[in-house]
Design brief:
The protein is an alpha+beta fold and 183 residues long. The chain has seven helices and nine strands. The protein folds into two domains: 118 residues, 2-Layer Sandwich (Beta Polymerase, domain 2); 59 residues, no CATH class. The strands form two sheets. It has a seven-stranded mixed sheet. The protein has a two-stranded antiparallel ribbon with strand order 6-7. Strand 6 and strand 7 form a beta hairpin. The chain is elongated and about 50 Å long. The model has no long low-confidence stretch (mean pLDDT 95).
Length: 183
């Protein structure tokens, strides 16, 4: 059974992320999972994402990414990659890997039955969701940040998040986040 044969409508996001990231690593493409799928993982699936967003840290040409994804049955459709059996679409937002104006320099590695992948830390996941709230008034981003914060207590620093929010010029919106996680 090949890699593309293990993709099916019931596959879970973290297993698919492991399969894709491991396959891409074999092709010399180094990716990190970001976005809503990280929220799903860090909120114990309280939030369900229907896509997997990977930032390519190796900056390979798009043609190499397209060829590597084709090997596992994904084809480009607009800005996404789709697989006929996958419940998830895959996107590769442009880098660099960052949360707001801060570059992301650390990530977490998770092993799954289908492979290993890296994803942003809970702290950077919260920043990523708060950045959407800060800059686009995305209330869903605020809610997602609070879900991660509640489920990942002890895995982030509220003081460091406040310093970051101050650099982003968004202390008032940050206070709303703090009130939300303490309610």
């Amino acid at each position: 059974m090949g890699k593309r044969d293990v993709i099916h409508p019931g596959i879970i996001a973290r297993d698919l992320a492991g399969l894709i990231a491991s396959h891409l690593a074999e092709q010399g493409i180094d990716v990190t999972l970001v976005g809503g799928a990280c929220v799903s993982i860090y909120s114990n699936n309280f939030y369900q994402s229907d896509d997997l967003d990977f930032v390519d840290r190796s900056y390979v040409p798009n043609v190499a990414l397209k060829e590597a994804m084709a090997v596992i049955g994904f084809t480009p459709v607009g800005r996404y990659y789709e697989h006929p059996q996958s419940p998830f679409v895959v996107e590769f937002p442009s880098g660099p890997l960052s949360a707001g104006d801060d570059p992301i320099k650390e990530w977490v590695t998770l092993a799954t039955p289908l492979g290993t992948f890296s994803l942003i830390t809970p702290q950077d996941c919260i920043k990523d969701r708060l950045a959407a709230y800060f800059h686009w008034d995305d209330r869903q981003g605020l809610a997602q940040a609070s879900w991660v914060a509640r489920d990942q207590a002890g895995q982030y620093s509220l003081d460091e998040l406040q310093i970051w929010a101050e650099r982003e010029g968004e202390l008032e919106k940050f206070r709303e986040f703090v009130d939300l996680i303490h309610s």
